[in-house]
Automatic annotation (TrEMBL):
It comes from the Bacteria. This is Lrp/AsnC family transcriptional regulator. It comes from Trinickia fusca. Residues 3-66 form the HTH asnC-type domain. Keywords: DNA-binding, Transcription, Transcription regulation.
Amino acid sequence: MNLDKTDRAILMAVQADGRMTNASLAEAVGLSETPCARRLKRLEQEGYIEGYRAVLSKPAVEIGVTAFALVRFGVHDRRLSDQFEREIQAVPRIVSCHNVSGSADYLLHVVARDLEDYGNFVRDVLRALPGVTSVESVLSLREVKRDAGLPLL
């Protein structure tokens, strides 16, 4: 990672507000508009910025449950894992999936309308995925910190 102080400032600013104008960004990082636009374009082309997105309001889109599902496999077969990973890509309510170490094989971040909806999802979708032998759920009682972007270490 070969980023100078200004590149880092640009990355932090666009993580905080991906819709800020180039003029606002330039002012925030202490550059004139043209050099700022060039740097931003370079950061995008070099892969530091993968994309831009909106953060939706959970209540507005009727998401009342956030859960973390610990998924375990009975047999550790590469073919089953690959199939599982392919199939979860098509499940929108799985917000993220991590292959983890420890007592579980995967940690899924899942959203649902309510507990009944989540229970049906676990029964009808998660337990039916290839390789899955058990699912343990951890329900979020409240969100203390939301994804605020990546720190630049």
